[in-house]
Amino acid sequence: MGSGCEIDGERRSRSLSILMLLVSALASSAEPSLRWVSDPAQPYLAWVEVAPLENFVLPAKASERTGLLSVRVTPTSNSALPPMAGRYSLEKNMLSFHPQFPLEPGLRYTASFKSLRASITAPPRKDAPATKVSKITPTANTLPLNLLKFYVHFSAPMTRGSSYQHIQLQDSMGERVADPFLELPEELWNPEMTRLTILLDPGRIKRGLLPNEVVGAVFEDGKDYTLRIDRSWKDASGRLLEKSFAKKFRAAAPDYRQPQPRKWQFRYPTAGTREPLRITFAEPLDAALATRLLVVGREPNLILEGTTSLAAHETAWEFRPAEPWSEKPHHLKIDHRLEDLVGNSIERPFEDALDRHPEAAGAPPPKSRHPFAPKPAAPKVD
């Protein structure tokens, strides 16, 4: 009797072990799933999780993690946008990605892990003010005949794909100027979808090209023009712009001179303060490039954190450091791709075609350094 009970107990124990092994095997063979997670109280602080991942190893180097589990703004055209920056973590068998910045209201985001995809649309802010055009650069009221581009800045993210339906260049009589823009299939937006680059047709700008010879330049010397943005344009939340925007300007003489850093005027800050380093250029420079291609560092190779701004119709540049200036030697790193309003760079004039310099194709852009030292702090008076 006791022997039979022992046998039944052994059978039950063996069956239970087999069942547990089967459950474990099924769990380990479960396909991973990808999902968005957010706090209802803070819907813009969302992150992505993928699980279960068996025997998954998170690469130690940040460069090897790029694209592993990626999050991008979902494009409204065929253009590919760069992945968002953020932080990866691996706990047990779950990989998470937390974007560095909150999601933008109204934008749709897509997360990717191998063949898995998951999307989320950040809800629009109900109390958010209507989106508007905050400015158009260049900001000057007189612009050169061979102007290359405009930047349109918006107060919130916009939609992609139909920009040129809402943009007009008009002459002094309010008539539409025919075909002034280079309408690229992929619109030139910044990653935040708040700044659009509008290129004027370079074929009508550059001397000697057929469009310039046959159709003529976009602008005429001394004539007045208006770049108009219509309020029918919708932002990323699907709302119309607050109002239309008009930038009026006069076309003046063309500019064929390259930017010359040796003609720049520097105003140096005082050590121990957060006074800005200020540069006054000899002419207006491209606003986006001036913000990106001028970098302040400290010897030997430290890049300073801080904020950059432009003033005086893009003829003045300021850098204010996050921390007070040190008395140690500093430098301004100048990337020679920096351009003026017509595409003349420090490296070469716009009219000088790249095909005349085949050796430059693919070469790293030249750079130069302007050394400086902050002014000594005034001695303290007891």
Could you please describe the fold and organization of this structure?
The chain is mainly beta. The chain folds into four domains: 1-27; 33-121, Immunoglobulin-like (Sandwich), CATH 2.60.40; 133-252, Immunoglobulin-like; 261-372, Immunoglobulin-like, CATH 2.60.40.1220. It is 12% helix and 32% strand. The protein contains five helices and 23 strands. The protein has a four-stranded antiparallel sheet with strand order 1-2-5-4, with no helix packed on it. The chain has a four-stranded antiparallel sheet with strand order 8-10-13-12, with no helix packed on it. Strands 9-15-14-11 form a four-stranded mixed sheet, with no helix packed on it. The protein starts with a helix and ends in a 10-residue tail after the last strand.
How would you summarize the topology of this molecule?
Elements: H1 2-28, E1 33-39, E2 42-51, H2 62-65, E3 70-73, E4 86-91, E5 94-99, E6 108-113, E7 116-121, E8 133-137, E9 142-144, E10 149-154, E11 167-171, E12 188-189, E13 195-199, H3 202-205, H4 210-214, E14 224-229, E15 245-252, E16 265-267, E17 277-280, H5 287-293, E18 294-298, E19 302-303, E20 306-311, E21 316-321, E22 330-335, E23 367-372
Parallel strand pairs: 9-15
Antiparallel strand pairs: 1-2, 2-5, 3-6, 4-5, 6-7, 8-10, 10-13, 11-14, 12-13, 14-15, 16-17, 17-21, 18-19, 18-22, 20-21, 22-23
